[in-house]
Amino acid sequence: MWSPHGQTFETGLATGGTGQAMTDSEAIEQDPFEDIAFGTWLIGQHGRDGWIGDLARAAKADRGFPRHGDPDAVRLHLNKMQAESDMFEAVDDAERLWAPF
């Protein structure tokens, strides 16, 4: 089960789909004229308090997390990982914050 509290999600280095490890700054670095992918933006929220921060920290540690995905890709991943319902609510809240970007 994918849960920030149980720490049962996959851990390891972020690869960004390239097979090579990415640093945190590479994961959130973005050209100001490009859209920020929801997954990338979410991982950048790992310093937040609350459920969004919990979700971001879990996503950062999950090698299979859709870093370049939209909110629906994140929900699909959470569903596959049998995430707690609170994580889906956190995605909804995070999507509202991300939408202006």
What CATH architecture of one domain do you see?
Answer: Orthogonal Bundle
Report the biggest beta sheet as strand number plus sense, adding barrel if it closes: none
What's the number of helices? 5
What's the pLDDT, averaged over the residues?
79
What structural class is derived from the secondary structure elements? mainly alpha
For the record, give the distance between the C-alpha atoms at the N and C termini, rounded to a whole number: 30 Å
Calculate Rg over CA atoms.
12 Å
Order of helices and strands: HHHHH
CATH class of one domain: Mainly Alpha
Helicity level: 40-55%
Helix/strand layout:
Elements (H helix, E strand, L loop, with lengths): L23 H5 L9 H6 L6 H12 L9 H10 L4 H14 L3
Helix pairs in contact: 3-5, 4-5
Organism: Sphingobium yanoikuyae
Protein name: YozE SAM-like domain-containing protein
InterPro entries: YozE_SAM-like_sf (IPR036806)
